[in-house]
Amino acid sequence: MKRERKVKTIGCKVTLEQFRMITGVATARLQSTAEWAREVLLRNLAAPEPELNAQLLFSELAAQRASMMMLMQHAINGTKITEADLVAILDDCDRARFAMGAARLRDAVNVLSPAAKNGAHSD
User: Fold this and answer.
1) How far apart are CA 24 and CA 5, in angstroms?
2) Which of 26, 30, 63, 89 could tie 97 with a disulfide, CB 3.0–4.6 Å?
3) What per-residue confidence (pLDDT) applies to 120?
């Protein structure tokens, strides 16, 4: 595979603490700072996705919301919730939580950031 020659440079200023964090992550991944930064920039350019920690948090919140809605439905209908019902509700939420969280986070990004609708990101 022929490697395309890199001819342009993008730079930005960071604080000393940010520099330490960046170099620490790059070193942990056995990459130079430039390699790591290029990878992050290109990955976000190709497929801008919410940060993994945010996805996990929203996934958990979405699962909690779904389980509460199911429990409230039982309460509204006046049906008794058995242990088996509770286990089934939690299992259903666990199976769907990542898809629910990712979808809610994408929706939030689109609502909160008009630039996100055009594929652009603002800092």
Assistant:
1) 27
2) 63
3) 47
Tokens of 8: 């342009």
pLDDT digits (tens, 9 = 90+) for 9-68: 888 898 999 999 999 999 999 999 999 999 888 877 766 566 667 777 777 888 888 888
Residue with tokens 């209908």, as numbered in its chain: 77
Q: Is residue 101 exposed (0-12), middle (13-18) or buried (19+ Cβ within 10 Å)?
A: buried
| Mean per-residue pLDDT of the chain | 80
84 burial via Cβ count (<10 Å: 0-12, 13-18, 19+): exposed
Answer whether 77's CB lies under 8 Å from 39's CB: no
Give me the amino acid identity at 37: A
